[in-house]
UniProtKB/TrEMBL annotation:
InterPro entries: At3g26010-like, Beta-prop_At3g26010-like, Gal_Oxase/kelch_b-propeller. It holds the Pfam family b-prop_At3g26010-like. It comes from Thlaspi arvense. SUPFAM superfamilies: Galactose oxidase, central domain. This is F-box protein At3g26010-like beta-propeller domain-containing protein. Residues 4-232 form the F-box protein At3g26010-like beta-propeller domain.
C-alpha cells in the first residue's frame, strides 16, 4: 500500500502532495509536524516520522527520524543520541508516537515518565529529557486523575489533576515549561470544588490562547464545561445526543444506553495524554 502525504491549511482548499518517501526507509511511523515561524508567517516546516525501535525497544544507542523538509523538498534520515549521557541516565523507549509540537520542537513521554524534547531546526545531535514536576505521577487509574500535555500561550503545558482523599473532588495544577531554563513553573492550582465541580467532571484540554481556561467533560451531563480558573466562572456547552458506541470499560450496572466517545477517553487507563490544540465548540466562554 502506498502512503501519500499532503500539506495544507485546514481553513483553505489547496492541499499539496509531498514527494514519495524512499522505499528503503522501513520501520518508521508518523510522529509530528514542526514549523518555523516569524511574526506569524510560516518560514519552513518538517514532517517527522520516528523509527519504531524507539517505541518497542527498552534502550537504543540512537534514535532515528525520517524527515521531510520544506527547505530541501526531500526526505532524509537523521540520527540523534538518546540524552546527553546515555550510560548513566538513558532515555528509554517512548510510550506513544503521539507528540506535542511547539516552536520547532516535538515532545514525547518516555517509559520512565519524563518529557523528551528535540528541536528539529537546531543542530543538536541528542534529545533532552525533562523530569515531571515534583509531586506528579505518571500512573493513576481514576478518570479524574489525569495528566494532559499540550500547549497554551506559547508554552508547553501540563495539566495535573489529582483526586482528593474525600473522593468527592480533586485539585488541578497547571504547569508550564520555561524553555530558557527547562524548568517547570506553576501557573495555577485550584480545588475544583470551589467551582462546584465534582469528580464526574474530567479535565480534557486547555485553551491554546488563555492558560486560565480549561475544558472538562461532564460524565453525567454529557457535555463540555469551560472553566476560567482566574475568575472562578464556568459555562456549559450543549448537551451531546449523538454517537452511540460500544465501550469495553462499560460497567454492567450502568443503565445508560448511550456511551460517548468522550466517556471512553475519560476512562482510558493511560494517565498521561498528549493532545494537540483543542477547543470544544461552546456558545459562551467564561471571561
Amino acid at each position: 500500500m502506498t502512503i501519500r502525504y499532503y500539506i495544507g491549511n485546514p481553513m483553505l482548499p489547496p492541499w499539496f502532495q509531498l514527494p514519495p518517501r524512499e522505499p528503503s526507509h522501513d520501520g518508521y511511523i508518523d510522529s509530528g509536524l514542526v514549523t518555523r515561524m516569524h511574526n506569524g508567517a510560516l518560514l519552513a516546516y518538517k514532517v517527522v516520522r520516528i523509527h519504531s525501535l524507539a517505541i518497542s525497544r527498552g534502550y537504543s544507542q540512537t534514535w532515528s527520524f525520517e524527515i521531510y523538509s520544506s527547505d530541501t523538498g526531500e526526505w532524509s534520515v537523521k540520527q540523534v543520541l538518546p540524552g546527553p549521557d546515555p550510560s548513566t541516565n538513558p532515555v528509554t523507549r517512548i510510550k506513544t508516537p503521539n507528540t506535542v509540537s511547539l516552536n520547532g520542537k516535538l515532545h514525547w513521554l518516555d517509559h520512565t515518565g519524563r518529557i523528551i524534547v528535540h528541536d528539529f531546526f537546531s543542530h543538536d545531535d541528542q534529545v533532552r529529557a525533562i523530569s515531571l514536576p515534583a509531586g506528579t505521577q505518571d500512573e493513576r487509574n481514576l478518570p479524574s486523575e489525569k495528566m494532559i500535555c499540550t500547549t497554551s500561550q506559547g508554552y508547553f503545558v501540563l495539566i495535573d489533576a489529582e483526586q482528593l482523599q474525600d473522593n468527592k473532588s480533586y485539585d488541578v495544577r497547571i504547569w508550564r515549561l520555561r524553555c530558557d531554563s527547562w524548568s517547570w513553573e506553576k501557573a495555577r492550582e485550584i480545588n475544583m470544588d470551589s467551582l462546584g465541580l465534582g469528580r464526574r467532571c474530567v479535565p480534557v484540554a486547555i485553551n491554546c490562547f488563555d492558560i486560565d481556561i480549561i475544558y472538562l467533560w461532564d460524565l453525567d451531563g454529557n457535555c463540555f464545561v469551560a472553566c476560567n480558573l482566574g475568575t472562578l466562572t464556568k459555562s456549559y456547552g450543549a448537551r451531546k445526543i449523538v454517537t452511540i458506541i460500544h465501550a469495553p470499560f462499560r460497567n454492567p450496572l450502568d443503565t445508560r444506553r448511550t456511551i460517548y466517545s468522550e466517556d471512553v477517553r475519560c476512562f482510558q487507563f493511560q494517565r498521561c495524554s498528549f493532545v494537540s490544540h483543542f477547543v470544544p465548540s461552546l456558545q459562551v466562554v467564561p471571561t
